[in-house]
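User: For a reading group we're discussing how well predicted structures match intuition. Take Alpha/beta hydrolase. Before you show the prediction, I'll give you the sequence so everyone sees exactly what went in.
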Amino acid sequence: MHARSRRDPTQFGRERSGRAGTDRTRRRVSRARRGYADGPFGQIHYQQQGEGAPLVLLHQAPMTAAQFDNVYAPLAARGIRAIGIDMPGFGQSDPTDVTPTIADYAQIVPAVLDALGIARADVLGHHTGALVANEAAILFPERVRAIILNGPLVIDEAERQKYWATGHQWELNWAEHSGGTHFNELFEIREAFAAGTVPLARISDYVVQALSGKGLFWYGHHAAYQYRQDERLALVTQPGMILTNTGDIIYPHALAARAIRPDFAFVALEGGGVDIVDQQPEAWADAVAGFLQGL
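Assistant: Thanks. Here is the predicted 3D structure of Alpha/beta hydrolase, as C-alpha cells, for the group to look at:
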C-alpha cells in the first residue's frame, strides 16, 4: 500500500474535530425563506422570516442579507416580519450596469415590497444600509413608514477626503493572489474587528459574503462616501430611530446624526463592534422591536 499523503481526505474530519469526523459542531442557521424579485437592475435576492409588521433589513458593505442571520428569529419572535435584501451587486442580487449610488440601491425597496404584496414597511439599514434606508424614506415616502439607522455615516469633508486617499485606494487595489492570500487578508481584517467576540466560523461567513457579490469590490463604500447624509437626513419626514453601539467604529457619526435629528429616538447599546447583530442579537432585537411597537 502507498503511504497516506499529508492531506489524506479520510483524515480531514479528524483534523477538524479530533473525533474521527463524527462530532460536528451545530451552528445557528437562518431558517428564513428565500426568493427573488424583479428590480430595475435585474433580479433581487431576499429572505424573510416571521409574521406581523414588515421590516426591511439592509446590510452593510461588502456583505449580504446573511449579515442578519442571527436576528431573523429574534425579530420574528417579537412579532416582526423581517425581510433581508441583498443590495444590487451583493450576494445573489444582480449588479447595476454602472457605478452605483445610494439612490440606485434604494430602488430595491419598492421592488421587493411590490413582489411581496406589501404596501408599506419599516426599513432598517446598517452602515451602508443605513444610508440606503435614509434615501428610500426620501424617495418613496408612501412605501416607508419609519426608518431605523443602525450606524449612520455623518461625516465632514476632511473625513471624506481621507477615505478617498486611503480606504478607497485599498479597495480599488484589492485583488486575487496566488495561494489565496487575499482570503487570508480579509479574514484577518474581520477577525481584528471582531476582537474575539465572534466565532471563527462566523468570520468565515463574513469573508464568503464579502466575496460572493457580482458587483465590483469597491462599489459599496464608494457609494457610501459619496452620499451626503448630513444633508439628506434632514429631509426624512417619517419617524426614525438612530440605533448604535458604543464600540462601533463609526459611533461618533451616530452622535452627529443625533444632533441633526434630535426628534429621532436614540438607542446606544454598550460595547460591541461592527458585528453587533451577532454580538448582541437579543438586545439588538429588543431595541428594534421596542421602537417599532411604540409607533
